[in-house]
Amino acid sequence: MSRQVFCQHFNKEADGLDFQLYPGELGKRIFDNISKEAFSEWQKKQTMLINEKKLNMMEPTDRKFLEEQMEAFLFEGKEPSIEGYVPPKK
Q: 55: closest CA among 76, 70, 40?
């Protein structure tokens, strides 16, 4: 039986993450309020952002940028701007 959460990204009950995938306070907030599906969607966008902007995960400024994008996407529904990427129409 998977854990259910009320996903703030999709505004519906959905399967929650199996464990906290992100550290700290934000990680706990994601674990408690974001579904597996929404987090998986974010991970695809994160990969595109890292590749397109050639982010270095050893750089604190790049990590901070990515974290801000993640928070905006998951909790505010803001699409990150990815060059040449058009999100599918809902």
A: 70
Domains and CATH numbers, the chain: 4-76 (1.10.3880.10)
Concatenated DSSP letters for the chain?
-PPEEEETTTTEEEEBPSS--S-HHHHHHHHHH-BHHHHHHHHHHHHHHHHHTT--TT-HHHHHHHHHHHHHHHHH-PPP--TT--PPP-
Per-residue pLDDT of the chain (90 residues; tens, 9 = 90+): 789 999 999 999 999 999 999 999 999 999 999 999 999 999 999 999 999 999 999 999 999 999 999 999 999 999 998 776 566 665
